[in-house]
Amino acid sequence: MERRKRFDDVVNPRSRFMCLGGRWLRALHAAAALRADRQCWFYDLRSAPIDYRAAHAWQLQLRRERAGAARQATAWTPALSDVFILLTHRPVYTLGTRATEAHLKFDTAQPPCQWVRTERGGHVTYHGPGQLVGYPILDLRRHRCDLRWYVRTLEEVLLQTLAHFGVRASRMPAHSGVWVDDAYKVAAIGVSATRWITCHGFALNVERQSVPPFARVVPCGLDSLRIGCLHDFVPRPEDAPLDAVRQVLAERFADVFQLQLVPYHQQPTSEGGREEAGVRTASRTAV
């Protein structure tokens, strides 16, 4: 049973019935998957803030391609690599599946910035300058098919990132995300998954400019919630610039998930596709 369980971790269970009954074919595919599944394509989009709708459409496209490949996999089909997108958004409020317009403290006909309904879990949050947003598109069969474990592991990435800059943060048992002094939420998490392929992710407030916009919503559905940022809790904010935090965050993500980040240089277009930036990558069906 243990041998079968390990095999299921890296191979689509449906593909077992397409292996011509040969154990050596299954072993060959499993070995190839194990070699590839530690690589993660890393899109570090730091040149300018990204429109939320474009990034959202791009995420869904990446997930569809991986979910489709998982469904159609055969013994000869290599798995598509995991993806990690790290960016900053233009100002936007996003509503998860548990949010309603009652959580918005502004006139939706004249909003202060864009607001978007999404299929991620959770309530309302804000994304904008001074914040780092991470979108892992992971095949959890390579890791662990457990969304609770996945959320806690994302929290661990954030906890270790904050600890690097001398900020002691913690979890809250009843809520996802990361908190300082058991009072200030500095990072939010909201995810979704299809066929164990993840989408959406986390947001870490780094600079103080990322905090005031939360006053226009009921963040995370909690009226009394206080929002903070990394720079609120370090002696010298200049010792934790956004780019330095970005680098540490990527390193901790790779360490905690035991992945090798492979840099790619593309960004989403307004239609949700991809726009190459000097680096030729694999075809659309492989990204």
TrEMBL record:
Database matches in HAMAP family: LipB
Ranges where the record places region Disordered: 267-287
Ranges for domain BPL/LPL catalytic: 78-261
Keyword set includes Acyltransferase: yes
Family to which this protein belongs: Belongs to the LipB family.
Keywords from the named record: Acyltransferase, Transferase
A Pfam family per the record: LplA-B_cat
Gene source species: Cyanidium caldarium
Pathway in which the depicted protein is active: Protein modification; protein lipoylation via endogenous pathway; protein N(6)-(lipoyl)lysine from octanoyl-[acyl-carrier-protein]: step 1/2
NCBIfam families linked: lipB
Name listed for the protein in its UniProt record: lipoyl(octanoyl) transferase
